[in-house]
């Protein structure tokens, strides 16, 4: 809802700038609308439009990259969870308690990630949750292998747990969002200038107003998508947790 509110504000600013330009068009003296003046202004607006297009493209590319990274981290985390559980199963019955802790840890993470509550998502990065993961690593290190095969499985389990915890932290860091607000404000300011200039040198009519409306809607949707993809575990556009849920059903078997 926070991102939707920002998108609505962006729409209001951009569309309002276009309407303001249409209003000022009727107030400007003719000398301000000469071919020479219009030519200079078009060159300036063209420069601003180019910068805005570059920044918008970079923001979309960065947001998509963050989303894909988080999605990859979720898939890898699910893979590590399954491999860790199967490795512990091969080790022997003395790892049953660790496997139970692992299943509880994964179930708790899924419940918080799907809650939609920002506080729940924030708690996944808390020191308490980190200590739960470290507790599993410590219990793995405290195992007392009785054969060469068990020593090998213990080493593999410790490595899988470390990599899985690292993948989980990476996904959480990606989910925290990384859109610089100053850059976003600058982009919106440029869009307002561009749309305002469009209205300034255009006679008002229904077709023009509708075009401005659609343009403002399109830009606000782009901003909304950028913000949503930069928070892939919260909002309306999220990474799929189906791989982790599938992994959970396989734990302890």
From TrEMBL:
The keyword Membrane applies. The keyword Membrane applies. The chain crosses the membrane at residues 7-28, 40-60, 183-201, 207-227. InterPro entries: DUF4239. Keywords: Membrane, Transmembrane, Transmembrane helix. Pfam families: Bestrophin-like. This is DUF4239 domain-containing protein.
């Amino acid at each position: 809802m926070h991102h939707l509110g920002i998108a609505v504000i962006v729409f209001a600013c951009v569309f309002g700038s276009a309407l303001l330009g249409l209003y000022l068009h009727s107030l400007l003296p003719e000398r301000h609308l000469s071919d020479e003046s219009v030519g200079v202004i078009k060159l300036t607006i063209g420069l601003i439009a180019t910068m805005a297009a570059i920044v918008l493209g970079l923001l979309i590319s960065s947001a998509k990259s963050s989303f894909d990274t988080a999605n990859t981290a979720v898939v890898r985390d699910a893979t590590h969870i399954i491999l860790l559980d199967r490795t512990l199963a091969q080790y022997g019955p003395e790892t049953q308690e660790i496997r139970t802790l692992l299943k509880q840890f994964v179930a708790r993470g899924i419940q918080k990630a799907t809650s939609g509550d920002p506080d729940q998502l924030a708690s996944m990065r808390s020191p308490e949750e980190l200590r739960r993961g470290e507790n599993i690593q410590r219990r793995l290190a405290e195992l007392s292998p009785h054969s060469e095969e068990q020593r090998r499985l213990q080493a593999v389990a410790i490595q899988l747990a470390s990599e899985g915890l690292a993948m989980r932290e990476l996904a959480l860091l990606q989910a925290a969002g990384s859109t610089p607000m100053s850059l976003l404000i600058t982009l919106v300011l440029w869009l307002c200038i561009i749309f305002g200039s469009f209205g300034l040198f255009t006679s008002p009519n229904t077709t023009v107003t509708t075009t401005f409306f659609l343009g403002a809607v399109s830009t606000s949707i782009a901003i909304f998508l950028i913000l949503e993809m930069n928070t892939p575990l919260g909002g309306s556009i999220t990474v799929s947790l189906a791989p982790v849920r599938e992994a959970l059903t396989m734990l302890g078997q």
